[in-house]
Design brief:
The protein is built from 13 helices and 15 strands. The protein has helices at about 5-10, 50, 60-70, 85-95, 110-125, 140-145, 185-195, 225-235, 285-295, 305-320, 325-345, 385-395, 415-435, and strands at about 25-30, 35, 40-45, 100-105, 130, 160-165, 200-205, 235-240, 265-270, 280-285, 350-355, 360-365, 395-400, 400, 405-410. The chain binds pyridoxal-5'-phosphate (PLP).
Length: about 450
């Protein structure tokens, strides 16, 4: 273990882990789509770290913009105006859809969702909030209560008033239906839940346009437009959590752009500064912005709109545009889809492949008929996922894994050669999964 690894082991509480199970490999170099450990081993970053490093590591333009801002002023309170903060908020207004127009800056995605809950409750005067079971919205108390996945129950009770609904997971439909011909029951069920909760009590429905860490569920094309209609019918605000799907991940600027749906509130983080400096944001539409012209906004953070983070964000958005990275994500996404289809055909252990742009999941099963997961949902890995992970690492790619899923989300800056290298390695390592079916 390196000296840094030893210090971390001794002094750092690492998130989402039992501490004595952690490994402490040190990374001390990164560039573009690649990073290196201290032994000089090189990895292709096929998950953009935690699906945030969208334009890739160490982009010189972004680094220069941060340095320039440091030379001017590192920090001013949110009560003074600051050029990068205003500029970034304008860029956000210009790139988000519809009349989303005004931004409250936070430090990350969870805080963005917590503040979106407060804003939705204040604006509507209602207190209940809907979210989906298979979802992740962050680890602060409000955001983890919105979250439906297994990260929520250990920290309950959370905040009051959160109600969960089922999601469009067509491969394992909660309603036992198949798309098309399902009557979009996953959306109609939301309508029914709103009626039972009392439409006058429901402030907002939080959705990841494409569910992220719970398995990359790309919804049927009618789903989000129908959810928009249902929200409008009852005056419920639609909040799009674009923390993962925003800024090019799906081959469009934002996930909702794939279906031309305009939310009332959008939350974002990750690809906004892609982690060079942490930053999140809550973006509201004109009506909500107007409401706060005369009403108090009960939200605030010492580091809201930190100038260094905003300068980083401005340069990042410029890079997306100058290097046509959103277009590249769409183009590379086509190649990724083709390679995923080939992987599905070649490997009996692959139950489903799902992708949109450069956002994809491979779902592994013991049996295509029964769809039994290769590794149990929220259970201990019987060993096979660990073996696949070790194989991927050994052959030089880093991939985020969870349960029986492999998540593929390389930087939007990836080129065809790099993408094919990553897919070749996955193809090779999945042979281990196939072999496990017969053992
Ligand atoms: C969809 C979604 N929302 C919110 C969050 C929380 O963001 P953060 O970790 O920056 O608080 C995440 C993190 O992965 C996410 O995927």
């Amino acid at each position: 273990m390196s000296a840094a690894g030893e210090m971390e082991r001794k002094y750092v509480l690492r998130s989402w882990s039992v501490q004595n199970k952690n490994k402490y490999e040190e990374v001390n170099r990164a560039e573009g789509c690649w990073f290196w450990n201290t032994d000089g081993k090189k990895y292709l970053d096929f998950s953009s770290q935690l699906v945030n490093m969208n334009i890739g590591h160490k982009h010189p333009k972004v680094i220069e913009a941060i340095k320039e801002q440091m030379d001017k002023v590192c920090y001013v309170t949110p009560n003074y105006a600051s050029e990068p903060r205003g500029k970034l908020a304008e860029l956000i207004a210009n790139h988000t859809p519809g009349d989303l127009c005004k931004t409250l800056f936070t430090l990350g995605g969870a805080e963005a969702n917590d503040n979106a809950i407060k804003i939705a409750r204040a604006y509507t005067g209602r207190f209940k909030v809907l979210a989906r079971y298979r979802s992740y919205h962050g680890a602060t108390y409000g955001a983890i209560t919105l979250t439906g996945d297994p990260r929520r129950p250990p920290v309950e009770p959370g905040i009051p008033g959160v109600v969960h609904v089922f999601e469009p997971y067509c491969y394992r439909c909660s309603f036992g239906k198949s798309y098309p011909g399902c009557g979009l029951e996953c959306a109609e069920h939301v309508r029914e839940v709103i009626q039972y909760e009392g439409p006058n009590n429901v402030a907002a429905f939080f959705v990841e346009p494409v569910t992220g860490t719970n398995g990359v569920f790309v919804p049927p094309k009618e789903y989000l437009p129908r959810i928009r209609e249902i929200c409008d019918e009852f005056g419920v605000l639609l909040v799009a959590d674009e923390v993962m799907t925003g800024w090019g991940r799906t081959g469009k600027w934002f996930g909702v752009d794939n279906w031309d749906v305009v939310p009332d509130i959008m939350t974002m983080a990750k690809g906004l500064t892609q982690g060079y400096i942490p930053l999140g944001a809550v973006v509201v539409n004109q009506k909500i912005a107007d409401y706060f012209e005369d009403n108090m906004l009960w939200c605030g953070l010492t580091y809201s709109g930190h100038p260094l983070a905003c300068a980083c964000g401005v340069a990042t958005v410029e890079v997306y545009k100058e290097e046509k990275l959103i277009e590249n994500a769409a183009k590379m996404g086509e190649i990724l889809k083709k390679r995923l289809d080939e992987i599905y055909d070649a490997h009996p252990s692959v139950g489903d492949v799902r992708s949109i742009g450069l956002f994809a999941a491979i779902e592994l099963v013991k049996d295509r008929e029964t769809k039994e997961p290769l590794s149990p949902w929220n259970g201990p890995d019987p060993g096979i996922m660990g073996k696949i992970g070790a194989c991927l690492k050994e052959k030089g790619i880093y991939i985020y894994q969870r349960w029986n899923y492999l998540f593929l989300a390389p930087p939007t800056a990836i080129n065809e050669e790099e993408l094919n290298f990553g897919m070749d390695v996955i193809d090779e390592c999945l042979k281990l999964a196939d072999e496990s079916l017969n053992s």
